[in-house]
Design goal:
mainly alpha
Amino acid sequence: MPKRFRLTRRFPVAMTEDGYRKLRSFAAEAGLDEGEALSFLFENFDSVTDGEMLAMRLRMFNSELEARKR
């Protein structure tokens, strides 16, 4: 029997415009709203990410983060 889909947590999220555009695009292609799309991505995080690529991209993002905040 499938798990019931309940949204149990709501939290404010700050995103870049580029990140939000990609989220909206992904959600639309998948037929989901943005909250459902985020739930899907985080529930299936290990299977939808490449661990080595994720680590490299995270290092790049962190190295550019301070400059992007200005």
